[in-house]
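Dear colleagues,

As part of the handover before I leave the project, I'm documenting each prediction I ran so the next person doesn't have to rerun anything. This entry is a single chain, and its sequence is reproduced below.
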Amino acid sequence: MRFVIQRVKHASVTVDGDVIGKIGRGYMILIGVCDADDESVADRMVDKMIKLRINEDAEGKTNLSLADVDGELLLISQFTLYADCKKGNRPSFVKAGSPDHANALYEYIIERCRERVPVVEKGSFGAEMAVELVNDGPFTILLDSDTL
């Protein structure tokens, strides 16, 4: 499982001209799932992401967690995080999880986050989405379950 975590001042996701998710200060997270992932992997990833101390304190040091700053979450499914670009110039996505498996874990992650974070917004699985954000920092982190 892969999370691309971007600390944002605000972010939104639009489908067919309608804003379906919008947050203020917090994290916009792109979520990639492979077929080997399961709920225990998702639990580890969510726990790590929520506890990351990547928000600035009064001295400007990255010392504060999402909860410490009353941060919000925008979660976007992103199968392209499993793109394989080793051969040729056209990426292969065979390492990405099957749609049914990936969607089930995506929904599971959303529910786990909603248990711990007051504001959790989401994209639309499989839809063509326009994502807008103002990256705060910029500050972007890649979490990969293979390295946790």
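The mean pLDDT is 97. The longest strand covers residues 130-144.

All the best with the project,
I.
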